[in-house]
Amino acid sequence: MKSCPMLLKAVSFTFLLFVFFTACKDEAKSHAGYAPTPSANAPVSEESVNYDQTTTTNYPSNSSLEAEKPTGEDYKDYGENTFTNTLQQPVSTFSIDADGASYANIRRFLSNGQLPPTGAIRIEEMVNYFPMEYPEPSDARPIAMDGEISDCPWAKDHKLLRLGVKGKHISKQDLPTCNFVFLVDVSGSMDDPDKLGLLKESFLLFTETLRPQDKVAIVTYAGEAGVALESTSGKNVAAIRKAIQSLGAGGGTNGAGGIQKAYEIAQQNFLPNGNNRVLLATDGDFNLGISSEEELVKLIEDKRKSGVFLTVIGVGEGNYQDAKMEQLADNGNGTYEYIDNIQQAEKVFVQEFGKFFTVAQDVKIQLRFNSKLVKSYRLVGYENRLLEREEFYDDKKDAGEIGADQCITALYEIEPVKSRQTWGEKVKSLTWLTGVQPDRPLDTEAALRIQCRYKTPGATESRSFALDLLAQTNDFEDASENMRFATAVAATGMLLRQSENKGDLTWKQVVKWAEDAQKYDPGKWRTEFVGMVKEAKAQLEPGLFSEVR
């Protein structure tokens, strides 16, 4: 009987240990940003990924790409566009998307030996990361448009349409005077070399592009917003650089408070005929004040009425909030970039400086397909930029912006009508008809009409122009470099997503298409892409997809 108290003590001690370790486990999950795996049947899902905390930029060579595991990173998967029957709906409408964040973020995952989550793979942003050799506007318009059709390389009986839009070139001395506000997240979560440290290096690069007439203010936010630098002339670049170098991290993240203060300063220094822009730099981990995506989007929609444009710059890993930042940019007359290394910072802030100067806003594209020639079509990417048919003519409907020298590309996969030979002989040089009246019926020989609506910056009414593409096509190998390289990038996204529409695509094909389209390669980003794809091919071709998805 004397053993009973000892037994009770042992049982009690065991129970306490169980409670203690259970609590520790739950606490660990909380600090890791643990979230349950979303339902596979949800039409819009939020995804997370786990990866080693490393800042290496070398592509993996000896290890297999690892499976996705839930942590604090947040993405939304908008699914994939399906084929639309032209007899049911001959018109396709979407807003252009000038973001490049998705590609740089995918590069970060692959360089860390990780597969990106499906929600991180936005094919339109992958393609639009790369400059294309598109024709300059030849008239008074701020943008030009062209297109071509070739055989589809992953579907034998299908065609592929490439649509290109180019913002006009403006020499640096002729660019409008700038009123920039750097809005920098200096909360505790930013205290990493690949976050605030990388941002400081990036903004120091940016100061090299400033002219004496330009102005820069710096607003910071952590627990509350503060002004690190009042609006300062580019003549005093030393003061701007000193303010950047003095930035330090600590505290919570009141992003909404920072947004309010940044737009307030931008409006105080507003230039009626200038370039007024807030550059929001963050990992997106807002946790104080207004912090939900819905509330932040509502706030930024209100601020865009001020005439101030927005650029969202994402950095870091582990708690990265991609979904939130993409929506802020999309709804704030803005663009969205991700910086994973100093080379990317130079691309964003120096090489493509013109993208900070909007030449056309609320740019919408509408295609009308000839149902006698086209049976069905599918827009590759742009899943969260689709518009209703009537929204194309609604000047109050927000859409994407195009900067100076910026290129936008869209691809459509087309299923031709098979009842008769309607597409004619293969031709080396395709024909498109410009100066088309948008309301005029399609010619019988035209496969489709592409119409574009846009506003000049600050305008309230849109302008439009159109071109018709005839039912002509050529072999994919004879298509332009623009077509072949854009297709290689889009195909990479389809393979990474395991697209249901990838047909007989292989990594070997993608490498060849990209390698054969290198004549136009400013910045050598196409060359880097080939190296990245070769590494992905080495990791994924052995059949690992079935293991990691």
Notable traits:
13 helices, 6-stranded antiparallel beta sheet, disordered C terminus, 549 residues, alpha+beta, 6-stranded mixed beta sheet
Written description of the protein model:
The strands form four sheets. Strands 4, 13, 15, 17, 18 and 19 form a six-stranded antiparallel sheet that branches. The protein has 13 helices and 19 strands. The N terminus and C terminus are likely disordered. Helix content is 29%, strand content 23%. The chain starts with a helix and ends with a helix. The longest helix has 29 residues.
List the SSEs and their pairings.
Blueprint: H1 3-31, E1 45-47, E2 75-77, E3 84-85, E4 91-95, H2 101-111, H3 123-128, E5 143-151, E6 159-167, E7 178-185, H4 193-207, E8 215-221, E9 225-233, H5 237-245, H6 255-268, E10 275-282, H7 293-303, E11 309-314, H8 322-331, E12 334-338, H9 342-351, E13 358-369, E14 374-380, E15 400-403, E16 407-416, E17 432-433, E18 446-455, E19 463-470, H10 481-497, H11 507-515, H12 525-540, H13 545-548
Parallel strand pairs: 7-8, 7-10, 10-11, 11-12
Antiparallel strand pairs: 1-2, 3-14, 4-13, 5-6, 6-16, 8-9, 13-15, 13-18, 14-16, 17-19, 18-19
